[in-house]
Amino acid sequence: QASPSAWIDLEIPERVADLMEPVLGDILETATVQDAIEYLRAADHARQITYLYTTDADGRLTGLVVIRDLLLARPEQSLTEVMLPDPFALHARMPAGEAIRAAVHRHYPVYPVVDAERRLVGLVRGWRLFERQAIEITAQSGQMVGVDKDERVHTRLWQAFRMRHPWLQLNLLTAFLAAFVVGMFEDTITRIVALAAFLPVLAGQSGNTGCQALAITLRGLTLGDLDTYPIGKLLRKEAALGALNGVLVGLVAGIAMWLYATRTGAPDAPMLALTIVLAMTGACTGSGIFGVLVPVTLRRLGADPATASSIFLTTATDVLGMGLMLVLATTLVL
Amino acid sequence: QASPSAWIDLEIPERVADLMEPVLGDILETATVQDAIEYLRAADHARQITYLYTTDADGRLTGLVVIRDLLLARPEQSLTEVMLPDPFALHARMPAGEAIRAAVHRHYPVYPVVDAERRLVGLVRGWRLFERQAIEITAQSGQMVGVDKDERVHTRLWQAFRMRHPWLQLNLLTAFLAAFVVGMFEDTITRIVALAAFLPVLAGQSGNTGCQALAITLRGLTLGDLDTYPIGKLLRKEAALGALNGVLVGLVAGIAMWLYATRTGAPDAPMLALTIVLAMTGACTGSGIFGVLVPVTLRRLGADPATASSIFLTTATDVLGMGLMLVLATTLVL
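^ Those are the sequences you sent over. The predicted structure of the assembly is below.
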C-alpha cells in the first residue's frame, strides 16, 4: 500500500525512467521451472514479484513468465517453454504520455522497461501510469485559462506568477480587440446607452455557451471519442445547440431589454429587444462552432488542445457577441 | 487486452456492481494447497485468475491467496495457513466514486466484491476503477460551465440541450446582476463613453484571473493536495497573485486607456488611466479570492466543487470588475 504522500507529492516526471523501479524477478532464460521456483523461494522480495522476466547472457529481455504457469508446468521444463516470448516493454527514454497511451488498453499490473539495446533496466507499476494520467487530466481546466500543467496548490507564488502572467497579458491583448470593436460604435452607445448594460450579458452568455462546446470537444479528444465520431457531425451538433440555446436565452434577454429600454426612455424598445434576440442567437451559434474549432485547431497545429483554449475562444465570442449586437442596433434602431 | 471500444463506449455506471465481472478463482477455505493447485490446473480460465479467494460454507469471503504463495508452501498445508485473512473488499452497492477513493492507495490488480452479508459476488479489475476515474476527471472542465458529467461527444442533441440549457438561463440571470450594476452608472457612461469599451476588458481579465485560481483549487481538491495544504494559505497566495497580475495587467490597460481617452477627447485622461489601474488591481485580487472560495464553498455545501463553478465565479468577477471601474470613474473623474 502506497503512503498517501506518494500520491500527493508526486513530482510530474517526463520520461518512463522517472517512474521506474529497480528490476525484480529477472532470471536467465536457460533456467528450468525448478530453478525459477527455487529462485522465488530464496528471493528477499518474493511478495513484490508479479512476473519473472527472462534475459539472455547480455541482459536483453527475452520473455515473461507468469508465476501461475510455473505451477502448471513440470519442474524439469525449460523456462523458454513456459514463457511468453518477446513481451511488450516500455522504453526508458519514452515520454510518460506515450507510455500511458501504450498501456491504456493493456492494463498489466507491471511493465518491464528496456533500454535502446533491449536490456532490462527496470519495472514500472501500471498504477503509476494511471496515477500520472489522472494528474495530467486534472491540469486541463487550468491549461484552458493559461495555467501551466505542472502548477499545483503547493507551487510557489513566484513560479506560479511567472507561468500565469504571460497568458494574462495575451488575454489583455485579445480583450483590446473586443474593446476596439466596441469603440467603433461609441456613437451608437452614446445615443442608446442601454446597450452598455447589455455588453457584459452578450459577452458572458456567448462565452459560457462556447465553453460548454469547448469542454465537450476537449473531453472527446482526451477520451478518444473523436477517433470514431466525425468532427463535422460534432460541429453541426454544437452549432444547432448554440442556436437553440441562443434563441431561448435571447428571448428572455430581449424581454429584459424591452422592459429596461421602456423604463429608461431609450428609443424604439421593440427593435432593441429584437436586436438582442438576433445578436444572442447569432453569437451563441458562432460560439458553438468556435468551441469545437479552437481545440481541434490547436491539436492540428501540434499544440496541446487545452492550451489557453478558453482565452482564444472568449476573444472570438466577445468580438462576435458584442460586435453583432452593436452592428444590429446601429442598423435596426438608428 | 481490452478492445479499444471498451474504452470509448464505456457507459458511466453508478455502482461497483456495474463494473463487476463474475467471480473466478473462489475455493472453499477447507481446501489444501494441493487442492488449490489442482483446481488451477483444471480451471478453464486459469490465465485470468490473479488471486484465489477462500469462502466459507455460506459463500462468505474469508481470505485471499496469492498464487505465488502456493508455490512456496507445502502441498499438504491448509489454505487457511497461506491465505491473507479478511481481505479488503468492495461492496456491490458502493458508489463507484467511493470505490475509486478506497482503491487509490491500494492499486491491486483485482478487487473482490461482496454483498451485505459479505458473500463473494464478483470481481472488479483495478484498471476499470482507474478508467472510471479518468472519465470522471475529464468531466470537470465541462461541469464548471454547466455541462452534465455524463455528456460526451456522442450524447444526442436533445439530451445535451436539456442538460445544458437550465445553466445558461441561470448564467443569464446572474449576468443581469452585472448589467444592473452597469445600468446604475448610465449617467457616468453617457459622459465618459470611453468606459464602455473597457467594460469587456475588465470583465474578461478578472474572469480569466479568477478561473486560474479556480482551476488550481479544483485540481487541489481532486488530487487531495488540499488535505494537507491549508485553505487559508492558498487564499493568501491567490489574493497576492491576483494583486500582482492585476497591477501589471492594469498598467498596460491604463496606458491604453490614456491613449484612447486622449484620442477620443474624453475628460481627464490621466485620472481615467488611474481608474483602470486601480479597478484592475482590485478586481483581480478579488477574483483570486473568489476563485478559491467558490469550489471550497460548493464542497462544504455537499455539492461537487466543479458544478457551475465558473458561472458563479464570473458573476462575482463581472460585478466586482465593472462595478469597481464605474465607481472609481464616477468618484475620481466626474
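DSSP finds 13 helices and seven strands in chain B. Confidence is low (pLDDT under 50) at residues 1-12 of chain B.

Shout if you want it in another format.
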